Amino acid sequence: MDESSPRLGPPSPQRFPVVVVGAGPAGLTVGNILRAAGVECLVLETGTRDFIERRPRAGVIEEWAVRGLERRGLARNLLERAEPHTACEFRFGGERYRFPYQELTGRHHWVYPQPLLVTDLVREYADVRGGDIRFGVRDVRLHGLDGDRPSVSYVCPETGRREVVACDFVAGCDGARGVTRASLAPERARVARHDYGIGWLALLAEAPPSADCVLFGCHPDGFAGQMPRSPEVTRYYLQCPPGDDPDDWPHERVWAELRRRLAASGAAPPAEGPLIEKRVLDMHDYVTEPMASGRLFLAGDAAHLVAPIAAKGMNLALHDAFLLGDALVARLTGDDDGGLAGYSPACLRRVWDYQEFSQWLSELYHGAAAGDPFRAGTTLARLRRLFSSPTAAAAFAEQYLGAAARY
Fold first, then answer.
1. Is residue 134 within 8 Å of 22, Cβ to Cβ?
2. End-to-end distance of the chain based on CA atoms, in angstroms?
3. Which regions of 51-129 does DSSP assign to beta strands (E)?
């Protein structure tokens, strides 16, 4: 928590204009933007480098986000290796309905697993741009956030000693369970929450995808999704009760449910393979308002969580990072406070837009399995409208792709 006086012994000589807590996509992007502008910063990460470069996470990046990375010199490997996706497919009523969103918008998604992006960003920040990053730190604490001399302290994994780093600003990019979000005083920040009342069994299979695009199975027994990650690895989701035990989903049950919920006329069944990840995600969202307090600025999941229903989480993290990195550069190199003053409102406009779309899309995915004939009927009407109304299709495509986004 925020403490005006750390009482941690003699002052440390360490000082950086910015301390970034967390080495995910948001924190590393902020760090890279700062280093490109010649601003010194320190990134603190509780995990090891190997851990953050292997941790399985999201893989869908919207085109505006890729262009934002490209303009900052952070997308070379992505553009060379990522797979563009131009369509998705809905399956309901035993039929297949392909949705060619590139034809409607001229835009597409990129599929690039988050571990690969993190690997690229770490290498660029630490190995190319000479940024300081310290892995495996423990017990990170923030101090003096309301004054003009904030600091961050942590326990060094090598020495076991508490180190103190003075700074001008703290970028909180350490996720939903990190210390930076917890450091916001409750009387200064409101956290709005939403629980969908459902779970998703998240699976990573060493198996090729059964189709060349993302699949959405809207089935009376529950949603199923296929998200290709590479020619050899596929992400699957199965709707399940919240809090379900992954051990209750053995190999045979998983593949039987995927085959049933993704079944459609003329469609190949999912190709089976070893399940290398299996965990249950309870679908919920939250938004912290404002995303800044004193010298602390939150980004990514430290500020807001959007359930993976619409694949928006990593994209929102990158949007925050672009705005925050640029605002910090403007303040530290040109004494321009405008970007920092407007940071939270600018981020939250996009956050709430994506949250609303995620909520709408959840009904499309899960309404058929709600056990309510009225909801099932309205869900079917929404699905049919996507494939009978050009206006409805264009509106969906714009939101699905974030095509209205500009950065």
1. no
2. 33
3. 60-62, 83-85, 88-92, 95-99, 109-111
The pLDDT score that the predictor gives to residue 407 is 53
Q: Is pLDDT above 90 for 373?
A: yes
Q: Quick check: 379 pLDDT over 90?
A: yes
- Dihedral of the alpha carbons of 36, 42, 44, 45, in degrees to the nearest 10: 30
Q: Sign of torsion, CA 135 320 25 216?
A: positive
Number of residues in the chain: 407
Q: Which residue type is seen at 109?
A: H
Count other Cβ atoms within 10 Å, centred on residue 201. Answer: 23
What value does the CA radius of gyration of the chain take, rounded to a whole number of Å? 22
Residue 3 is classified by DSSP as B
Contact between 197 and 243 under an 8 Å Cβ cutoff? The reply is no
Specify whether the CB–CB gap between 185 and 257 falls below 8 A: no
Distance CA 236, CA 232 (A): 13
Instruction: Give the SS3 label for residue 34.
Output: helix
Residue 6 has pLDDT above 80, yes or no: no
Percent of the chain's residues with pLDDT above 70: 96
- In single-letter form, the type of residue at position 85 comes to H
Kindly report, residue by residue over 28-56, the tens digit of the pLDDT.
Answer: 999 999 999 999 999 999 999 999 888 87
Q: Where are the alpha helices (DSSP H) in 11-149?
A: 25-36, 49-54, 63-71, 76-81, 101-105, 114-122
Q: Is the pLDDT of residue 320 over 90?
A: yes
pLDDT at 159 over 70: yes
User: Which pair of tokens denotes residue 395?
Assistant: 């509106």
Q: Residue 121 pLDDT more than 60? A: yes
| Sign of the torsion angle spanned by Cα atoms 349, 351, 353, 359 | negative
Residue-wise pLDDT for 254-267, tens only, equals: 999 999 999 999 99
Contact call for residues 161 and 153 (beta carbons, < 8 A):
no
pTM (2 d.p.): 0.92
SS3 65: helix
- 19: number of CA atoms within 13 Å, CB side? 27
What's the whole-number mean pLDDT along residues 161-188? Answer: 92
Q: Which residue is it, tokens 């200064």?
A: 188
- 405/30 Cα distance (integer angstroms): 20
Using CB atoms within 10 A of its CB, is residue 338 exposed (0-12), middle (13-18) or buried (19+)? exposed
CA–CA distance, 7 with 385 (Å, rounded to integer): 63
Q: Report whether 5 contacts 148 (CB < 8 A).
A: no
Structure tokens that stand for 393 in this block:
């299709």
